[in-house]
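I have been asked to look over a protein record a colleague put together. Thanks in advance; the entry in question is below.
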Amino acid sequence: MQDIHQLKETIRGILDSQRLAVLATQGKGSPYGSLVAFAATDDLKTLLFATTRATRKYANLLNNTS
């Protein structure tokens, strides 16, 4: 198995090679997939993306937080 440093390098490589991701959320009814541009923090602990409050993904995320 890879050590943690190698694993972080692999994850960083994948995230740096991609500009877009699919965000899947669940609201009423079927799951909802959205193509989003994203960025990762240097520590790889957070993925960031922007959306407006008028989107279905925003409503789904807001309704599914604990």
Summary: The mean pLDDT is 92. The two ends are 34 Å apart (CA to CA).
